[in-house]
Design a protein that fits this description.
5-stranded parallel beta sheet; 586 residues; 18 helices; alpha/beta
């Protein structure tokens, strides 16, 4: 056995004998030396862990056992050091502390005395922009100067620390000669180059509050295209995307907080049956809400104090074979792109994948963030200038689209403005480093504006169709067409049964007069049978119909009094011509 004698007076009252720790105590009766433990631990490094919400200290311990074996380095949270619950799990049963709380206190104190020569480290468990010692850094694993660590499937994120001019040229080739329709690739590229601006868009009060939803039948290469775009931020293929709908909604939103200012992907919204449809739709709804509101769950610690909020800080692409049924509000929180069979040029896709695997896209993103840093982030005045420019562009693009489409959902102009900003900065970056000329920048931006407006108009129609009033009318029409409900004539003779089986109201040439409760119940039942949700009460439905000006209203309310079979009854008066317009718009 190795035997050490303590000759360092600074370590008094501790001694190391035969690789065991002893302590000397002095009392009125004299001094005595007792054994503390059969090993000698020490602090190798003191690590500060920053996860973007809280900063914690952890200690990396090593040591030697009485049998002469070296104890492997272990990481211990600072708060857990003194309870030694970690000892058995980390170093095994052979490491024994002598009986008594006093021995634990002495051991904890001794460990802390070894910190003087310990290496001081900082580890980041979050990506994106962070101000360190007065300078902005864009954090990604692989940074030579800073230790950025992500776990699990997030380990595929990594950056580069150099580039040459050929790399941005490869990125521009992806834009100029896309392997899939420009209606898919161009918005995805705009989204990718928008994402590093999140920190400053947040400061300007216009952070992106939507996700891109890439739909397509199986085999259309939607996951492959998503992986290609994510290759600006790491090493990805279609089989190792960061998240999927097999993950829980909570794990997805937690990871989305750690992935600050980088693009991520939630893959494969594809329910196999009605039960899974309900489960995945609930997950999709939570994701859309989280990104659409950029708010995290409010949670309490065990002592009832409020924990730090962890809202999504990334931007996200979702892939799926169909869009989820999440209503008007949910649909307004995503921007849809569609890949059809045969859309992808496989030979050119292979060339682009080779560029991605060789790191050209990662190096382009490094060049882009360094350009942002040089141009906008040298001091607080430059940061303020960037915020002002982003806010100005945001208001400009938002106003432009409002003028283009006056009937769209309120969120859509914000989405259009965000994507326009991403493309504007991408093209401006390429122009200023010499890849394209000013006239190319202006032409490409104008063409992208036209493309984006066309896509946004389609999205606007989709959101319109998801309005509760429009869903109700379409479902009601299918019930009438299928003979599952009955609408009688308003002038029905008194001798006939006024309420035959399936009755939900009556009609004349201009209106359907619907019994509010019966019509609502019939539509809700149909939605349930089809595996869809209709989470609106009868009262909320009538209000929505009135707000859309689809029903006749009076000073007394949203129902009208109608004489039917000799009685005065109150109905919802749904205007036939407007209902027909809703049905025809589908």
């Amino acid at each position: 056995m190795s035997k050490e004698k303590n000759s360092n007076q600074d370590s008094y009252p501790y001694e190391i004998r035969d690789n065991c720790l002893y302590v000397t105590t002095v009392s009125k009766r004299g001094s005595s030396t007792t054994k503390v433990c059969n090993f000698v631990p020490r602090i190798v490094s003191e690590k500060t862990v920053d996860d973007g919400a809280v900063t914690e200290k952890t200690l990396v311990l090593s040591g030697i056992h009485a049998d002469g074996s070296t104890l492997p380095p272990v990481e211990v949270n600072g708060a857990d050091l003194s309870n030694f619950n970690w000892l058995l799990d980390k170093w095994g049963a052979k490491c024994i502390i002598e009986v008594g709380q006093r021995c634990k206190d002495q051991l904890r104190y001794y460990i802390q005395t070894t910190s003087e020569n310990a290496e001081q480290l900082t580890e980041y468990h979050v990506t994106g922009w962070k101000k360190i010692d007065g300078e902005w850094h864009y954090l990604l694993p692989g940074d030579d100067s800073l230790n950025v660590t992500l776990k699990g499937k997030l380990q595929h994120y990594c950056g580069e620390s150099y580039y040459d001019l050929y790399d941005p040229i490869d990125a521009y080739n992806l834009f100029e000669k896309p392997p899939a329709p420009s209606s898919v690739i161009h918005p995805l590229l705009a989204f990718a180059f928008l994402t590093p601006l999140n920190e400053f868009l947040k400061q300007a009060g216009c952070m992106p509050k939507f996700v891109l939803f890439l739909t397509g039948r199986t085999g259309t290469r939607k996951s492959t295209i998503a992986a290609l775009i994510l290759s600006f931020f790491g090493k990805f293929t279609s089989t190792d995307l960061p998240m999927s709908f097999q993950d829980t909604a909570n794990s997805i939103t937690t990871n989305s907080f750690a992935l600050k200012d980088v693009l991520t992907c939630i893959d494969d919204f594809y329910p196999s049956d009605n039960l899974e449809m309900k489960k995945l739709t609930t997950t999709a709804q939570k994701i859309m809400r989280a990104y659409g509101d950029r708010t995290g769950r409010a949670r309490l610690r065990s002592d009832s104090t409020l924990m730090e909020s962890r809202p999504p800080q990334s931007n996200a692409i979702i892939t799926g074979e169909l869009s989820p049924d999440i209503g008007e509000s949910g649909s307004a929180r995503y921007f849809a792109l569609e890949l059809k069979e045969g859309d992808v040029d496989l030979s050119y896709l292979t060339l682009c994948q080779n560029d991605a695997q060789n790191g050209a896209y990662r190096r382009t993103m490094y060049a882009y963030t360094q350009w942002l840093k040089r141009r906008y982030l040298q001091d607080d005045d430059h940061v303020a200038m960037l915020r002002e420019e982003l806010e100005k562009l945001y208001k400009q693009f938002r106003s432009d689209y409002h003028c283009h489409n006056l009937t769209c959902h309120g969120r859509l102009p914000e989405t259009v403005a965000s994507l326009m900003i991403g493309m504007r900065f991408f093209l401006q970056f390429l122009k200023e480093i010499g890849v394209i000329k000013q006239e190319e920048q202006d032409f490409n931006l104008d063409e992208f504006r036209k493309l984006l407006y066309a896509l946004a108009d389609i999205q606007s129609e989709k959101v319109e169709q998801d309005k509760p009033a429009h869903v109700f009318i379409r479902k009601l029409w299918s019930l009438i067409e299928g003979g599952k409900v009955l609408i009688t004539e308003r002038n029905r003779p008194k001798e006939f049964d006024p309420f035959p089986p399936g009755y939900i109201g009556c009609q004349d040439d201009d209106y359907y007069y619907l019994n509010k409760e019966l019509a609502h119940s019939a539509v809700k039942k149909l939605c349930g049978e089809q595996g869809e949700s209709f989470p609106f009460s009868a009262k909320a439905l009538v209000k929505a119909l009135a707000e859309e000006n689809l029903i006749k209203t009076t000073a007394s309310g949203n129902t009208v009094s109608v004489r039917y079979c000799g009685k005065n009854m109150r109905f919802i008066a749904l205007e036939k011509s407007k209902a027909d317009a809703v049905i025809g718009s589908e």
